[in-house]
Amino acid sequence: MGGKLGTIFARAGHEVVFSYARSVQKLKRLAREAQGSARAGTPDEAARGADALLFAVHWSRADDVLKQAGDLSGKVIVTCSLPMNAEDTGLVIAHTSSGAEELSKKVPRAHVISAFGTVPSEVLFPVFENRRKAKRPSLVYCGDDGGAKEVAAGLIRDVGFEPEDAGPLRIARYMEPFTLLIAQLAYEGAGGPELAYRFERFG
Ligand SMILES: NC(=O)c1ccc[n+]([C@@H]2O[C@H](COP(=O)([O-])OP(=O)(O)OC[C@H]3O[C@@H](n4cnc5c(N)ncnc54)[C@H](OP(=O)(O)O)[C@@H]3O)[C@@H](O)[C@H]2O)c1
Prior knowledge:
The chain has helices spanning about 1-10, 25-35, 45, 60-70, 100-105, 125-130, 145-160, 170-190; strands at about 15-20, 35-40, 50-55, 75-80, 110-115, 140-145, 160-165. It is an alpha/beta fold and about 200 residues long. It has a five-stranded mixed beta sheet with strand order 3-4-5-6-7, sandwiched between helices. Strands 1-2 form a two-stranded parallel sheet. Helix 2 (about 25-35) links the parallel strand 1 and strand 2. NADP nicotinamide-adenine-dinucleotide phosphate (NAP) binds near residues 84 and 117.
């Protein structure tokens, strides 16, 4: 998710720092291939001076990456991470809370937005390539800070989705289980993982 979204953000004109992987070479390759203004760095370097941070790690890595990122006061953190168990077979937090809400408790002075986690990574480049088409797919997002939500909505549009404001951060507790439905359709269904969704309103 981080590699693909970072690449798209760079191609959309943002300055991107790829960070957090076991291989610096991988981060450097991502930066090179992004073809925009991108570089590799540590989580701390990525966080410093950034207008927005994408939190895209396995749930088990959350504390480690936060420790490496340092002080995130005032930062916009867009999370696509799902609170999955070690085997990736189920959510370890659900119904009464969400990964996004628990992340927000870990960094109370940052502005956490939940976005991008409801679609498979395989659909991101196809959506970006089709961004000039009239009918864009939807992408739900939620959060508690108005300014941070505007930043997230801009990034969502840059990728090629139509942002669908789902309300406050606690709505992530409904979004995250919805993602498991999308994953079922994407990875177990017949049509393949290049799957997005679109809300239509009638009347
Ligand atoms: N993949 C999807 O389609 C999708 C869709 C919706 C939501 N999500 C959620 O998004 C989050 C990211 O998913 P992903 O599929 O992008 O995961 P991923 O491919 O495993 O990427 C996570 C990043 O964390 C790094 N990492 C893992 N262990 C590390 C360690 N011990 N030290 C340093 N870096 C480490 C990985 O680097 P390495 O190269 O070293 O592994 C990679 O850069 C997850 O919470 C997932 O539930 C994923």
